[in-house]
Design a protein that fits this description.
about 230 residues, mainly beta, Jelly Rolls, 2 domains, six-stranded mixed sheet, five-stranded antiparallel sheet, 20 strands, about 0% helix, rod-shaped
């Protein structure tokens, strides 16, 4: 069973509905004047898969990514459970929700199209389709303070940390300290970063290395105060 509803150009909303019970049953909309279509699936069928598809010429259908109407959810070209799914229809002449597999039961499907786009896509989008990961408003830093164990020999300041968001160090001694923040072994001189006596270094807002950080000083016992967040 396939249901198609055509509306005149300029209509603010378009809708269609039907039952998805057998393979290739579909509910589809012509997308003239539409920016996006919501497909609302209801029911608890067993082994059901619904594919979201579009066509530019009315003959050849291609997969389209639909976004669950749940904040933070990534898009998918198929759905296996009840819910509302939004498809941005730019360029398509028609879109549809088509049943591609089922063991028993059925979905009822209501399609509602509006002029507004429900999701702004990015070409070749990935990484959960650019859904953001919330960052805590505040982070408790870890104390990495210490002293030079053996003068002239590099030692670990901070282990590699893929979740590191920032770090800082202040030289409390009367001699220079040297840092390597890109995963190599610190040396006295280039390419290490020089931290003169009393100086404070803070990782820049635009860049924070996740690599292991190494430190070296010429004299045993040189102290430093360090923080990692």
């Amino acid at each position: 069973m396939t249901t198609t509803v055509f509306f005149p150009a300029g209509a603010p909303n378009q809708s269609a509905s039907g039952t998805l019970q057998s393979v290739n049953d579909a509910v589809q909309l012509a997308t003239d004047s539409l920016g996006s279509v919501d497909f609302a699936l209801a029911g608890t069928p067993v082994g059901a898969t619904v594919a979201f598809e579009g066509t530019s010429d009315g003959t050849t259908w291609y997969a389209m990514k639909a976004y669950p109407k749940v904040p933070g959810s990534a898009g998918s070209t198929t759905a296996n459970a009840a819910g509302s799914y939004n498809v941005t229809v730019g360029g398509a002449a028609k879109v549809r929700a088509r049943l591609t597999a089922i063991t028993s039961g059925s979905f009822t499907c209501v399609a509602n199209g509006t002029a507004g786009a429900g999701h702004v896509g990015v070409k070749n989008g990935a990484a959960a389709d650019l859904q953001t990961t919330p960052v805590p408003a505040s982070i408790t830093p870890t104390d990495r303070s210490g002293s030079i164990t053996t003068g002239g020999t590099a030692q670990a300041l901070m282990a590699a940390n893929a979740n590191r968001r920032g770090w800082s160090i202040q030289n409390n001694s009367s001699g220079d300290l040297w840092l390597n923040e890109i995963g190599g072994t610190a040396v006295i001189g280039q390419p290490s970063l020089q931290l003169p006596a009393g100086a404070l270094y803070e990782s820049p807002a635009s860049y924070c290395s996740p690599s292991a950080i190494s430190i070296i000083g010429a004299t045993t016992g040189q102290t430093f105060t360090a923080r990692e967040a």
